[in-house]
Structure formats: structure tokens, C-alpha cells
Design a protein that fits this description.
mainly alpha, about 250 residues, globular, N-(1-d-carboxylethyl)-l-norvaline Dehydrogenase, domain 2, 2 strands, 2 domains
């Protein structure tokens, strides 16, 4: 506790907002933002127009569009993290849940040699000074398919829900112990849309409350995959008429 108190003091001295997260692979922010990025990349792989994916992220309230953010982080970093995480899961006897974004990232790096902004080419093109000039036309050539459009709301909520659902799992796992920390960290740490009040408050304030969120998550799971299946903690809270709040 003394070490934690000193850490809090240090963070405040440098004008940052501290949150407490227990030890886990990816901790909180790095793990959750990966779901946002993966969902945007997966939609490109499904044949959806890349510009529409970027517009969906912008209109959902994200400060950075999803494909441009991926370029900034570099495509090789999430792939390295994925490979290390997969190995750890399999060594522990588990099964790695393959995400559809993985195939897109692998093609971008291995087939097209487009590792991101630092490499001069990614989902976007860049000039010699490193300035972004526009989405790479090859995305439409190699990935976009007619008839692949999905509702714009689905595009937005796939990104929002992917982060919210994993945050609930982090509560279940004990990695997060504070609703307030989750909300604050999501907005200031990884750019979750500020209008929501934070990643867990987004669930609380969703139309129909937690039951409405659970129902919508199940719709998304049926359409886009089991990764949208609501966690047990979320379902139980919805059934009890509860919300995500810190005990007082």
C-alpha cells in the first residue's frame, strides 16, 4: 500500500491521472484498445469500404480513426503481441481464439510490405516527409467486395462493444477493481469516446440499460461472431437490474 501511495503521488506530480490495474498480459488499456483496432481491420477484411470504416470510427466519437491509428502503432507490433499471447495461451493448455483481423494484418505485412507509417506504407499512403496522403488504393483492390456493406450502426457498435465487453471480462478476472478507473482510463488512456462517460458507463447508459446492452451484444454475436457474446458478469447484473458502479 505504501508503494501504491507513492506511485499515486508521483503520477499526480507530473499532472497525470492515475488508475490502479492488477498484473495481467496487456493490463487494461493496451488489451482493450486492441479490440477496437482488430474490429476495424476485420471489417476491411470482410470487404467493407475502408473509408466507411474510418467514418464509422469518427462518427462513433473516437479521436483517432481506426486504420490511421493502426498505422501509427505499426502493424508489426500487434502481430508480435498476438504471437506471444498465442504461445502463452497454448503453453497453458488453452486454445487461441483467432480473430478475423489477423489474416488482414498478415497480408498487409507479408504480401504487400506495408507495416505502417514508420515503414512509409500501411493502410494509408505517405509522402517522403511521412505525411499521410490518403488511404492506400490497394485496399479496395485486394479487400473491398461489392455487396459486403453492413448497417452503419453495426460498424460503430462493433468497435464500441468490443472494448466494452472485454472491459467487463477484466472486471471478472480481477484485473480491474474499480468502475471509475475503467471509465477514466478508457477516455484518457485509449480514446474511448468521451460522450459515453467511459467504457462501463457506456453500458450503463445504453438504450434499455444493461438488459438492452446484453440483447444487442447477442445480436452482434449472431451476426459477427462469438467474441460479442456477453460475459457472465454482465448477464447477471442485467438480470438483477444492476449497473456498473463502485461500492460505497
Amino acid at each position: 500500500e505504501e508503494a501504491l501511495a507513492r506511485a499515486f503521488d508521483l503520477v499526480r506530480q507530473i499532472n497525470k491521472t492515475p488508475i490502479v490495474v492488477n498484473d495481467s498480459r496487456g493490463f487494461f488499456t493496451s488489451r482493450v484498445i486492441g479490440h477496437f483496432i482488430n474490429e476495424g481491420v476485420a471489417m476491411v477484411g470482410e470487404g467493407i469500404e475502408p473509408a466507411s470504416v474510418e467514418q464509422a470510427a469518427a462518427q462513433a466519437g473516437y479521436p483517432a480513426k481506426v486504420l490511421s491509428l493502426m498505422d501509427e502503432l505499426t502493424l508489426t507490433l500487434p502481430r508480435k503481441i498476438r504471437n506471444e499471447s498465442k504461445r502463452a495461451v497454448e503453453e497453458a493448455g488453452g486454445t487461441w481464439p483467432t480473430h478475423p483481423a489477423e489474416a488482414v494484418i498478415d497480408r498487409m505485412v507479408d504480401e504487400f510490405d506495408r507495416p505502417g507509417r514508420s515503414g512509409g506504407a500501411g493502410f494509408y499512403d505517405y509522402d517522403d516527409s511521412g505525411k499521410r496522403t490518403g488511404l492506400w488504393p490497394g485496399l479496395r483492390e485486394h479487400f473491398t467486395r461489392e455487396g459486403s456493406e453492413i448497417p452503419f450502426r453495426d460498424m460503430q457498435e462493433r468497435m464500441l462493444f468490443s472494448e466494452a465487453l472485454d472491459t467487463v471480462k477484466l472486471l471478472e478476472e480481477g484485473v480491474l477493481t474499480s468502475v471509475a478507473d475503467a471509465n477514466i482510463g478508457s477516455i484518457f488512456g485509449i480514446g474511448f469516446p468521451g460522450w459515453t462517460g467511459g467504457v462501463l458507463q457506456y453500458i450503463n447508459g445504453y438504450e434499455g440499460g444493461l438488459p438492452g446492452f446484453v440483447a444487442r451484444a447477442r445480436e452482434l454475436a449472431e451476426r459477427y461472431g462469438d467474441r460479442f457474446t456477453p460475459p457472465t458478469l454482465l448477464v447477471e447484473k442485467a438480470e438483477k437490474g444492476e449497473t456498473f458502479t463502485d461500492a460505497r
